[in-house]
Structure formats: structure tokens, C-alpha cells
Amino acid sequence: MPNKRTLVFDSQTGSLLASEEQLLGDAGKLRVRPYSVNQYGTFLTAERLR
Questions:
Q1: Is 41 left (phi over 0), alpha (psi -120 to 50) or beta?
Q2: What is the pLDDT of residue 21?
Q3: Taking the model in full, what pTM does it have?
Q4: Distance from the Cα of residue 7 to its chain's centroid
């Protein structure tokens, strides 16, 4: 099943703020409409690893 993943970054700091996964086609037995969001996450804190 095709999907679209999106990452949202702060334009000033470059920190990751959120991520989303959206179904683009028929999800079969899941019984959800195309273009439904099946995952969304927000990040309250972010740190850069060296």
C-alpha cells in the first residue's frame, strides 16, 4: 500500500517538530479511506547528536 511520510522542521533552528504518515491508496482490510493519516507524532524536545 503506498504511503507518504512527512517531517516538519523548525525553519530557524532545524529541530524536528513532527512526523506524519498518510495512506495514499486502498488500505484493504483496514477499512479506512485513501489519504487518511495513520500516524502523527510531535516532538516536545529535540537534541542533536554529535
A1: beta
A2: 94
A3: 0.67
A4: 6
- Which grid coordinates belong to 1? 500500500
DSSP letter string, 1-50: --EEEEEEE-TTT--EEEEEEEE-S--GGG---TT-EEEEEE-S------
Distance of CA 29 to the CA centre of its chain: 22
How do residues 9-50 score in pLDDT, each as one tens digit? 999 988 889 999 999 888 788 888 888 898 999 988 757 777
What φ, ψ does residue 19 adopt, rounded to 5°? -140, 150
Buried b (16+ CB within 10 A) or exposed e, 9-28: eeeeeeeeeeeeebbeeeee
12: phi then psi, degrees, rounded to nearest 5? -90, -40
